[in-house]
Amino acid sequence: MNMKKILMGIALLASLGLASAQTKRSPQEVMARAEQQIYSKGDSEATFVSTLLDAKGKEQGRYQGKIFLQGENFRLEYGDIIAVFSGKTLTHHDDLEETLTISTPTNEELLQVNPFHFLRARGKGFSVRDLGAAGTVQTFAYTPQGKSNIKLVTIAYNHTTGLPTSIVVLSKDNSRVQIALGSFRNASKPFAKSFFSLTSKDFPKSEVVDLR
Questions:
Q1: CA gyration radius for the chain?
Q2: How would you list the strands of the sheet with 73-78, edge to edge?
Q3: How far is CA 195 from CA 36, 68, 98, 120, 202, in A?
Q4: Taking the chain, what is the end-to-end CA distance rounded to the nearest angstrom?
Q5: Cβ-contact 18, 160 below 8 angstroms
Q6: CA 149, CA 104: separation in Å to the nearest integer?
Q7: CA 186/CA 68 separation, integer angstroms
Q8: C-alpha of 98 from chain center
């Protein structure tokens, strides 16, 4: 599937029927609106396509997945990976390697795992630059204000829905993760707390790696 086909999936967001005036907003207003759309109406879920590129722009992998959100908590499912974050703990299971890894991630690590975390934090610790608008999409570039392994975060927002359509995280080694966001919807009922938990009992054959 080429990038044009992926970007066509962005059109699915229009089905949400969220109206807005086609006026140019400040970076703070755009991010605040996106965060409110995602988090203010209860639990939610979204689909995405994540593409990993090395420093030369060569594709290293592409994954389709889903992310489930409940306040600060999230559950991420893609390929052989299930990752959950609850409280301050990130737990992820790799079915291929048969490992269950437990860690206490930094905000930067959370950003690389969950692209919506950046919106939840309202871009704290980053300066922002407006890259302009094309049609209904407005794009901003966010640069870390302090020491970071992240070089740049670029987010494109859809004016009609208020939601992000794509997120690109560029690392200092010039490798990048490109995330094309597809459908988004609010959950019909709250997710159970156990949905954001993984334990060794769930994967009795997997090795537990505790990095806390």
A1: 17
A2: 126-134, 137-144, 150-158, 164-171, 176-186, 44-53, 59-70, 73-78, 81-86, 89-94, 99-103, 207-210
A3: 23, 9, 20, 20, 12
A4: 38
A5: yes
A6: 17
A7: 10
A8: 24
Torsion angle, alpha carbons of 118, 122, 123, 124, to 10:
-120
pLDDT in tens, 105-126: 988 888 888 878 888 888 888 9
Tokens found for residue 189: 């009922």
Q: Give dist(CA 168, CA 144) in Å, integer.
A: 14
3-class DSSP string for the chain: CCHHHHHHHHHHHHHHCCCCCCCCCCHHHHHHHHHHHHHCCCCEEEEEEEEEECCCCCEEEEEEEEEEEECCEEEEEECCEEEEEECCEEEEEECCCCEEEEECCCHHHHHHHCCHHHHHCCCCCEEEEEEEEECCEEEEEEEECCCCCEEEEEEEEECCCCCEEEEEEEECCCCEEEEEEEEEEECCCCCCHHHHCCCHHHCCCCEEEECC
Q: Token pair 């905000």 is at which residue?
A: 107
Kindly report the pTM of this predicted structure: 0.81
| Model confidence pLDDT, tens digit, residues 145-200 | 989 999 999 999 998 999 999 999 999 999 999 999 999 999 999 999 999 999 99
